[in-house]
Amino acid sequence: MAHAIECSALTRRFETVTAVDSLSLEVPSGEMFGLLGPNGAGKTTTIKMLITLLEPTSGHATVAGHDIVRDARAVRRSIGYVPQLLSSDGTLTARENLDISGRLYHVPRGERRDRIDESLEFMGLSDVGDRLVRTFSGGMIRRLEIAQAMLHRPAVLFLDEPTVGLDPVARRAVWEHVRRLRERDATTVMLTTHYMEEAAELCERVGIMHLGNLVALGTPADLEAQVGPGATLDAVFTHFTGTGLEDGGSFRDVARTRRTARRLG
Amino acid sequence: MTSLERVAPRAASAEPAAPVRFLLDAWTVAQAELRKLVHDPTEVATRAVQPILWLVVFGQVMAQSRVIATGNLSYMDFLTPGVLAQSALFSAIFFGIAVIWERDLGVLHKYLVSPASRASLVAGKALAGGLRALVQTFVVYVVAVLIGIHLRWEAPALAGAALVVVLGAAGFATFSLIVACLVRTRERFMGIGQILTMPLFFASSAIYPISMMPAWLQVFAHLNPLTYQVDALRALMIQGGPSTYPITLDIGVLALTVVVLVAIAARLYPRLAQ
Lengths: 265, 274
Fold this sequence. Notes:
Chain A has ten helices and ten strands. By secondary structure, chain A is α/β, with parallel strands linked by helices. Chain B is mainly α. The A-B interface holds A 30, 48, 51-54, 73, 76-79, 81, 83-93, 96, 100-101, 103-108, 111, 132, 148-149, 152-155, 182-186, 259-260, 263 and B 3-4, 6-12, 15-16, 21, 24-25, 28, 32, 35-36, 39-40, 104-107, 109-116, 270, 273-274.
């Protein structure tokens, strides 16, 4: 299959708000793609549709070749997902969290144990595998969550704001692990972020979303060139959306982000 | 593309058949819940206090007053199965708050994007809610021995009592999950949980026989699964304990309740993540 993700006229309305407005997009297999935009731009809604948590109001999409509505279970088998919120269970150990993931995807027992050891090692968590996750730092939790999402070797990995609330050192560590993981498994990655730096650092192509629409699409370098010589991605963003990165977002978004940051911190 | 040459095998191709998968997935979810209890048993420990108070304080006073006619049974023998059912109910009815908490964190999303069916996820939660009540069962039996209740100790009776407690608690835990899916916030849930427990408790034969109730309340009592749970427990726990209905009917009602509630909850559960 040529494209890991295909959306055509994908739309989701909530009562009066159109969160995602006729989005069409193709992400080739193996690409690291970034959806960029302020809070409330429709990034998370887009991802929630692609991972089958939310049905589209209209339009179609396939992930790993499977229709997200008609063949939701096949989609779920093919993807890994790290939510913006905290998805590891703090009241369980890292190893137990990984074990649950492995079992829900029916990774056979023997192989499961090997993969758990291997992924703890890979993520630099071998020493803390039997500690309760609530004693972890934010960066360690993120690494564990990514390990959980990758344990069944999905074709497509979705990361929703993977480094929100992390300090710069932890953020770099997460980037490094995502990069190495993708190199190892040739996974297609779609991530959302509102950090320009993150998109520029990690992504081969970037789509900028604003008010539910894709307003720009290209490599970080392309987009910078479109705006003018020497433009930073921040300038690109302002150019295409007419707002600064820190604007936007409802009270609910802010409350969520802060709560996540607090839980992680 | 050197990276593509090292492509790892994709998700395990061979999956167990759907019914096996259902049971395995439900057990995975239930086991995760039970492991949490092992890591932090304080919640279960605090839940054990309530039945002790009901038996030792309320029960002893009411037994003295002799206002409740309980046939050939002493009031304490009559009350003990009711207290067990009640304490399992009070604990299970707040089970849903943990699900809202999981939604707020994001743990719920991880479960819902997995290939496990919604019904298996909910069934796993229900099973965990049921098995938690075994801790209270143990506490009630210990207290009952200490205060001289005439308990039955035959293995089939004990196993039957355990099954009835687990089924009843699983049903109320699933009911709680449904309420959680409908109200969606912890604040609203706490209020509703308080409102629900007392009618369920009082419109049952837990602390007085149904025959003492006014006719309209008897109608509610007959629709209340707690009535059937208490009815079976009275026969299975107490020497010479009477049951109004055949025990198989009681168990059938409780099992059917669980199945219906799990089916409803499985439909509502994904909405929590939207």
